[in-house]
Design brief:
two-stranded antiparallel sheet, two-stranded antiparallel ribbon, alpha+beta, 40% helix, 152 residues, 16% strand, 6 strands, binds zinc ion, 5 helices
C-alpha cells in the first residue's frame, strides 16, 4: 500500500501542521472541516488519487467498510449487493446467507460443515464408511483458513 499524500497547512493559530491531502480536498468540497469520525474513501482504491471525483466522504468507519465490502463483491462477482461466505468464500444474494456477527456472512450448510470438521479434527477423521466420504466433502467446501480456525 502506497502512503497517502501529506501536505503542510497553517492552522488558525498560525502553526504549521501536516494533514492528509485527501482530507484537505474533502474539506474544500464540503466547505467545512470533516465531522468527527468521518472517513474519506478513494473510489478506485488508489489512496494517492485525490481527484474530487475519486473521493467519497463517509460519515463513519462502519459506512466506509460497507463501501469496501460492496466494491469487493462487485469486483469478485459483478454484484455489489451479494455477500461472501466466510467459510467457502463463494458469493450469493444476502437473503440466502446468515449474518449474526455484523459483517461476517455465511451459508448455514457451510457453518455446519465447519462444526463437523472441528469435531473431526479433535477426534481424528473417520477412515471408512459414509462418514469418511462426508468428511472429504466437508473439507473440500471449506477454504484452507476456515478449516483451521473459527470465524473472527
Ligand atoms: Zn476506502
Ligand atoms: Zn459457504
Amino acid at each position: 500500500m502506497k502512503p497517502y499524500k501529506v501536505v503542510w497547512v497553517k492552522n488558525s493559530s498560525g502553526a504549521w501542521r501536516h494533514k492528509y491531502e485527501h482530507v484537505l480536498i474533502a474539506e474544500k468540497i464540503l466547505g467545512k472541516p470533516l465531522p468527527k469520525g468521518a472517513v474519506v474513501h478513494h473510489v478506485n482504491g488508489d489512496g494517492r488519487d485525490n481527484r474530487p471525483e475519486n473521493l467519497v466522504i463517509c460519515q463513519n468507519q462502519a459506512y466506509h467498510l460497507l463501501l469496501h465490502m460492496r466494491a469487493e463483491a462487485y469486483d469478485a462477482c459483478g454484484r455489489a449487493d451479494w455477500r461472501r461466505c466466510g467459510y467457502c468464500e463463494k458469493y450469493e444474494p444476502q437473503e440466502n446467507m446468515y449474518n449474526d456477527r455484523g459483517t461476517v456472512f455465511y451459508h448455514a450448510s457451510c457453518k455446519s460443515a465447519w462444526v463437523r470438521n472441528k469435531r473431526w479434527q479433535k477426534r481424528g477423521p473417520p477412515q471408512t464408511g459414509p462418514y469418511a466420504k462426508l468428511f472429504r466433502e466437508t473439507r473440500s467446501t471449506l477454504t484452507a483458513s476456515a478449516r483451521k480456525q473459527p470465524l473472527p
